[in-house]
Design goal:
This protein is α+β, with helices and mostly antiparallel strands. It starts with a helix and ends with a strand.
């Protein structure tokens, strides 16, 4: 990981510019789902050109940015009668060894909003991200009624955030949105912080750089045995598995839909194969960042 971090730091400015410019070709006047769809389908091509092919593939790594889009995201229920979507986008960062075994991972879930003010307009979602200790799946037919626990603070801030799709730039808003709750984040803890508005907003490009560095995002247990738990790892595997079923059908190879996605996208010589629109309805849009060491 240290060798990868050194390469990222060396190309810091180029990487930030690419993450910023990837949104420039997206029509931000569309709805949040359409913006996410177009980013996953079209915007990540620039990330592959600039970062994967332009930097990492020239430095003893191979890499690919890839996207999966589904149309019906999971609805969760908590505190008796509160119901809302769990999230609009799952970001998965996977680092593989030369044999394509997973060495390192990070994940976070984002709610997409057009403005910062739109966050407060949905108090159910802010309550879920800010305060709820657990939820039950409500609309996620294979998992309906199952209980899952959300990480506590301060760990929670690494796994949940708001993706604010502003006209001129895209930014992340950290949780909790309601600062009366017990903890709020300081993105100045991150590499070369570029914070805005009382350290609760961090530019998309800066937080994504910190994700590549392994600083932001929460790790998860990708092994099948994590399916016996009900915490963060299980939530991430739920989202991957249900999205995988909508994409590949009911049976993933070796029972692992994460491996199925890695196998599908891991042809690092084919940068036309970077997007899938799932035929099934249920799941969550996913941004995959897959980096493989050649050592």
């Amino acid at each position: 990981m240290k060798a990868l971090q050194n390469i990222l730091i060396k190309h810091y400015d180029k990487i930030l510019t690419s993450f910023h410019n990837a949104w420039n070709q997206i029509n931000m006047n569309n709805s949040e789902p359409n913006i996410i769809f177009n980013f996953l389908k079209n915007g990540i091509s620039l990330l592959n050109k600039d970062i994967a092919q332009g930097i990492l593939n020239k430095a003893n790594f191979t890499a690919k940015f890839a996207g999966v889009f589904t149309h019906q995201k999971p609805i969760v229920e908590f505190y008796g009668n509160y119901r809302c979507e769990l999230g609009d986008l799952l970001t998965l960062y996977i680092v593989l060894d030369k044999k394509k075994q997973i060495l390192f991972n990070r994940a976070f879930i984002s709610q997409a909003k057009k403005t910062v003010n739109d966050i407060r307009k949905n108090p159910c979602q802010t309550l879920l991200y800010d305060k709820a200790r657990y939820f039950f799946y409500y609309r996620f037919k294979n998992l309906r009624g199952q209980k899952r626990y959300i990480p506590s603070y301060p760990t929670r801030i690494l796994g949940l955030n708001y993706l604010v799709l502003l006209q001129n730039y895209v930014t992340f808003h950290f949780i909790p949105y309601n600062r009366n709750y017990i903890y709020y984040n300081n993105c100045c803890n991150y590499y070369k912080c570029k914070c805005k508005s009382s350290k609760l907003l961090c530019t998309y490009e800066n937080l994504m750089f910190n994700t590549l560095m392994g600083i932001y995002g929460l790790s998860f247990n990708h092994q099948n045995k994590a399916a016996t738990t009900s915490g963060w790892s299980r939530i991430i595997l739920d989202l991957i598995s249900e999205t995988g079923k909508s994409t590949f059908g009911s049976k993933g190879k070796r029972g692992s839909y994460l491996q199925e996605f890695i196998n599908y996208f891991n042809d690092f010589d084919n940068y036309d194969k970077i997007f899938i629109e799932a035929e099934g309805k249920e799941g969550i849009p996913i941004l995959f960042i897959i980096v493989k060491s050649n050592d």
